[in-house]
Amino acid sequence: MAAPIIDAATFAELQASAGEDFVGELIDTFFEEAPTMLAELRRSAAAAEAEAFRRAAHSLKSNANTFGALALGALARELELGGLDSAKAADALARLDEEYRRAAAALAELRGG
Amino acid sequence: MGDLHGPARLLVADDNKVNRLLLQRSLELQGHSVACAANGRIALEMLGAGGFDLMLLDMEMPEMNGFQVLEHLAADRALRDLPVIVTSSLEGLDHVVRCIELGAEDYLPKPVNAVLLKARIGASLEKKRLRDQQKELVRRFATSEVAQDLQQSGFSLAGRRVHGSVMFCDIRNFTALVESQPPEETIELLNTFYTLMFDAISGNGGVVNQMIGDGLMAIFGAPLPLADHAGAAVRAALEMVELIDLLGVERAEAGRAPIRVGIGVATGEMVAGYTGTQQRATYTCIGDTVNLAARLEAHTKVALRAILVDAETCAALGDRIATERLGPVAFRGKALPVEVFAVPCGAPPAASG
Question: Which CATH number does A8-112 carry?
Fold first, then answer.
């Protein structure tokens, strides 16, 4: 079984230490920022800018892990470590988009409940 | 830390907004006041304005990354002691090692655990407080040039070999003096004594590194090299005796007993440096030269001379300051007898101490 969409323990710990309301706002911020990171990954991959690509993947990994979005974090980490070559794999970025959508839906639900 | 020493002012440097907000929130919940910078360049600008107690630094940042920030801080005398805790999800242990080598205090992997964060910040602020305290002590003991040099060369616990002169000095008959007067007067006398001795020593380029009851130890030629350290130490000793004589005149007018000091000076190789731990250290010198200076000081009671020096100090003085050869003396802990020289000056010390 792959990593969970959202790791319940990580998310609960985040809420406990930062406060539920604050985590709600933090999720909103993530929803604002993540599309920019995903776009930056595509742009830098197309422009063959290795450093920008790695940095965007790193940033997305870091945020995903903060919320316990471990599957998304793992995919982003593969791109961070693999660099531009990993982006060339046919569906790497598409898989990342898909995983982001799943994580975002799960977070939106957690935020509501 | 917030509980112990009041809230600290922290800077969070991270290009990622989610990370920034979350760190800020965690730190504010711990009672600290927090400012944020979105990259290394902005962080350095904000630090330059001053007032921060600690920085939490991300490594991956555009414009100027965390490694470059650490390099800048290390080269900046005003900022080199600022504690930096690296918070990063960088891959690879070598990055962590590089951060520490560049002077980071600690490393916390992301996502940052709030409890761990609190503990590390508390420890870092406490370390900084002790360092500041130590710096303040050194400033009090040293001339401004010496203190500045210390700040520049940093607090390394590794010793280094230096050639210098060591002085020991204490008050004769101090015990009898303490018993003959109220404690307030003794404290006042000690304060006057130390003020006069510090003036004479630092006025001649020396550093008082230890105060021991009614005595002190001073170093000439470390931490900063000092040309003619032996001459400087003996000139300081002569001034000290003169000042104590003047104090005696004052005391006699007030109907009090005069005081006498004994001073020993030895010159040679010694190992100088900070001893202690990273948290608590004192600058000192060790070695045969230091032992000899202490023995010479003790011997002033036997020789009934105020200032005694060793052969190397005497040789360095040449004809500039008169000395008198007292002949070889067998000191405890020395295999061979040691040539002892007196430096003639005002009044001889009273016998016994």
Answer: 1.20.120
Give pLDDT tens digits for B280-309: 656 677 888 999 999 999 999 999 999 999
B52/B277 Cα distance (integer angstroms):
25
Residue from the list B18, B62, B111 with its beta carbon closest to the beta carbon of A30: B18
Kindly give the interhelix angle for B93-101 and B66-75, rounded to the nearest 10 degrees.
20
- pLDDT tier for residue B278 given thresholds of 50, 70 and 90: low
Q: Enter the tokens of residue A44.
A: 């830098």
Q: Which residues of B touch A (CB under 8 A)?
A: 15-19, 21-22, 25-26, 29, 60, 62, 89-91, 110-111, 114-115
Interface subset of A 74-103, CB within 8 angstroms of B: 77, 80-81
Considering only the beta carbons, identify the residue of B19, B26, B60 that sits closest to A18: B26
Residue from A33, A62, A107 to probe the interface with B (highest B Cβ count within 10 Å): A62
pTM beyond cutoff 0.90 = no
Residues B87 and B207 in one domain: no
* pLDDT of the residue at B259: 87
With contact defined as beta carbons under 8 Å apart, do B155 and B281 qualify? yes
- Could B26 and A59 be called an inter-chain contact, meaning their C-beta atoms sit closer than 8 Å? no
ipTM field: 0.91
Q: How many CB atoms lie within 10 A of CB A79?
A: 26
**Which residue did the predictor score with more confidence, B56 or B214?**
B56
Question: Per-domain residue ranges for chain A?
Answer: 8-112
Backbone angles phi, psi at B169, to 5 degrees: -145, 135
Whether the pLDDT of residue B353 is over 60: the answer is no
Residues in chain A within 8 Å Cβ distance of B19: 62-63, 66
| A-B C-beta contacts closer than 8 Å | 55
DSSP states of B218-229 as a string?
EEESSSS--TTH
Domain that holds residue B174: 156-342
Along the 113 residues of chain A, how does pLDDT read in single tens digits? 566 799 999 999 999 999 999 999 999 999 999 999 999 999 999 999 999 999 999 999 999 999 999 999 999 999 999 999 888 876 889 999 999 999 999 999 998 75
Burial-class residue B348 by CB neighbours within 10 Å (0-12, 13-18, 19+): middle
CATH number for B126? 3.40.50.2300
The span from the CA of A16 to the CA of A9, in Å, is: 10
Start-to-end Cα distance in chain A: 26
